[in-house]
């Protein structure tokens, strides 16, 4: 950790630790991962009491940024506020982006015994989901590549084509990351993680870039074939459609609909 990052965190903790609702300050982001640049901002989770968490949740005040504690140019602290239940659920069933966000995380300040042990459990790859995830991702690639891309071109629908292209890149990348047991970090960092994956189709990255910059039906088909040829997966068209329907159209049955479908 760079000295100016440490000084900023020390000042931040010293100011906040008298708050009776504060339980811990947890490092995250590039500083936790050990990949921070001198100019990097500082990402932290504030672990607070359940009472404080619920009060902040009511007013949509579970995150903020502050420049107050950073003396280096353009420096700031990016804060997310959580409670112990959040950490426990993240270790039990957290999404891959949530798990990835705790990679390397440690309690910079804490009054909670054993907190670092819990943090370590969160960033573990969820092996129990891997095989089903790969099948689900393959189904997405099959439908977006073999059906929606063609429909978009046939109906001259640029929105649908853009949507199909984005999802081909997304779920092709998810297959590669899952195969390599690499957590999907977020859309912002996904391609960087795919580039680091040791096992992947050699043409995948280049095809993704070409397709995103100049989307055509032919390029959609090429990326689809390369992606599906990467692993020896036996998923029929009927099975793919069923999985697609369950994940995209019936995903409200056992839980609230995702935001885009409300």
Description:
The longest helix has 25 residues. 54% of the residues lie in helices and 11% in strands. The chain is α+β, with helices and mostly antiparallel strands and 262 residues long. The protein folds into two domains: 120 residues, Beta Polymerase, domain 2 (2-Layer Sandwich), CATH 3.30.460.10; 135 residues, Four Helix Bundle (Hemerythrin (Met), subunit A) (Up-down Bundle), CATH 1.20.120. It is built from twelve helices and five strands. The model has no long low-confidence stretch (mean pLDDT 96). The protein is elongated, with a radius of gyration of 21 Å. It has a five-stranded mixed beta sheet with strand order 3-4-2-1-5, with helices on both faces.
Quick summary of this structure?
The chain has 262 residues and is of the alpha+beta class. The protein is built from twelve helices and five strands.
Descriptive tags:
alpha+beta; 12 helices; 5 strands; single chain; Beta Polymerase, domain 2; elongated; Four Helix Bundle (Hemerythrin (Met), subunit A); 262 residues; 2 domains
Note the topology:
Layout: H1 3-16, E1 22-28, H2 29-33, E2 42-48, H3 50-58, E3 63-66, E4 77-82, H4 84-93, H5 96-101, E5 107-110, H6 115-122, H7 130-154, H8 158-179, H9 190-196, H10 204-213, H11 217-228, H12 237-249
Parallel strand pairs: 2-4
Antiparallel strand pairs: 1-2, 1-5, 3-4
């Amino acid at each position: 950790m760079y000295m100016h990052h440490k000084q900023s965190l020390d000042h931040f903790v010293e100011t906040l630790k008298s708050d009776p609702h504060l339980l811990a300050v947890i490092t995250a982001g590039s500083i936790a991962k050990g990949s921070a640049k001198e100019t990097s901002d500082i990402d932290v989770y504030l672990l607070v009491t359940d009472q404080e968490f619920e009060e902040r949740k009511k007013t949509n005040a579970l995150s903020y940024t502050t420049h107050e504690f950073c003396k280096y140019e353009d420096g700031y602290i990016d804060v997310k506020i959580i409670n112990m239940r959040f950490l426990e659920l993240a270790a039990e069933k957290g999404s891959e982006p949530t798990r990835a966000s705790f990679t390397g995380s440690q309690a910079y300040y804490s009054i909670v015994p054993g907190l670092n042990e819990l943090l370590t459990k969160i960033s573990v790859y969820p092996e129990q989901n891997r095989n089903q995830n790969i099948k689900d991702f393959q189904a997405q690639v099959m439908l977006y590549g073999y059906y929606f891309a063609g429909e978009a071109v046939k109906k001259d629908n640029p929105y649908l084509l853009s949507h199909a292209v984005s999802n081909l890149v997304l779920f092709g990348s998810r297959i590669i990351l899952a195969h390599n047991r690499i957590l999907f970090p977020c859309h912002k960092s996904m391609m960087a993680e795919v580039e680091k994956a040791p096992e992947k189709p050699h043409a995948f990255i280049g095809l993704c870039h070409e397709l995103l910059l100049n989307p055509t039906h032919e390029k959609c088909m090429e990326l689809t074939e390369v992606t599906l040829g990467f692993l020896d997966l036996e998923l029929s068209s009927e099975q793919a459609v069923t999985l697609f329907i369950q994940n995209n159209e019936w995903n409200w049955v056992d839980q609230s609909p995702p935001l885009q479908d409300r």
